[in-house]
Amino acid sequence: MTRLILLLLVASALVFAGAQFLSALRDVARRRGGLPATQEDAMPAPFRTIAYLVLLALMAGTATGLLGAG
Hints:
With 70 residues, the chain is mainly α. The protein is built from two helices and no strands. The chain has helices at residues 2-33, 45-64. It is elongated. The two termini are 16 Å apart.
């Protein structure tokens, strides 16, 4: 079970790092293009971060059996 948790944490860290890398590439391309910035969503960054962390905690709790049907 510990291996599953470790695998989930590593996988989520890789996904998060990849998303940040792609976001940085998009920002660089947008600045070079000179196009006006468009708002993709209305949720502020701190709320997105908190929601992401809560989702990870929920996933880990469900995977370990601490949450959910038991």
